[in-house]
Amino acid sequence: MIGGMGRWEPNARGRLEQAALALYSEHGFEQTTAAQIAERAGLTERTFFRHYADKREVLFGGAHALEEIFVQTLAGTPDTATPIDAMASTLETVAAFFLERHEFARQRQAVIMANTELRERELIKLASLASALAATLRRRGVKDPAASLTAEAGIAVFKVGFERWVGESGERTLADFLREALDGLKAVAAGE
Amino acid sequence: MIGGMGRWEPNARGRLEQAALALYSEHGFEQTTAAQIAERAGLTERTFFRHYADKREVLFGGAHALEEIFVQTLAGTPDTATPIDAMASTLETVAAFFLERHEFARQRQAVIMANTELRERELIKLASLASALAATLRRRGVKDPAASLTAEAGIAVFKVGFERWVGESGERTLADFLREALDGLKAVAAGE
DNA sequence: CGGGACGATGTCAGTTACTGTCATCAACGG
DNA sequence: CCGTTGATGACAGTAACTGACATCGTCCCG
To answer: Which pLDDT score, from 0 to 100, does residue B4 have?
Structure first.
């Protein structure tokens, strides 16, 4: 079927995500009910929960894609690189993913940081990411605890760099902030 | 009043925490209702929610004390130490806190790791801890992003070391695992 | 010693996140 | 043309949490 329209408007997930971000921004996460989001998207509450396991998850539709990029990139780095260099190169590549998304990232981050439950969900997504990165490093022959520590360090750098990038409206790219954070971590670990 | 008994049995919080850990261990977190915990503790569901904001929080009664120890110890470290050395010394002190609690930590960790919502709560407690440590470092004159990165690195070391300590039943203390993890992080950051 | 304020608890009704189940109906394949 | 499939709607139900008010020992003040 080409161009044919189904029984319903297409892209239900996209409409739900847009509606949720808008309502969470306007009225706050707690003050927004799942039924309101669904109504704004032209759907019912039941359908909302068919697409997303809970009210929070609707803000994390991109998490799977991010993990894919992280893992694929790390897995594609040359085996000769040290773990930290592989991670540095991965962060460089991942930063490109956000090049056109500064404004979206800003709005989404503002919503998440305003609510504890959403911050919890963000943290477990990052933890899952760290876990996947550690597994990828182990597949490359990195032993534990080095694999876990490299993954955790990479995520820490990503968190700190990302937060600072989102908090500034200047010209510097995410890649700039990630490089700065990684250099900072190396300096700290070296005892400076 | 010394030794006097109130209108009710004392230590309601302690009874709720014990009952919750036992029921979560036996039947799982999701299969346990707040009413069941309260009943086992000789209280009502409403009273449970007066002591704990939600079903998860009852497993984290010690988090405040842990943050206190972390922050007090870090704040008490000599100003001449580098941030990473201050953090290393803090981890050493904090490890003593768990010396007599290996079995309890094991059981609690098993319950938490078995459930996603509980893992989320654990992660936000650690994030709050990292935030407090970063603030303490800033008060000592450490600039950002070094302060945030040192705090995140310290928590990463704590996480990795703690998980490995809990996963082994041998003789090695938590302090041993934390030293090993910190050394591992330094090696990773140095590019080994 | 008496009475009122206090504090922890009980009781009960209510909201909402989330789930299970069945019905609906366009598109698709044969 | 008909049976299957897949996304959705309709509706009832559970349990987490909240607000309002009642209860009743303990404490404090006069």
So the answer is: 44
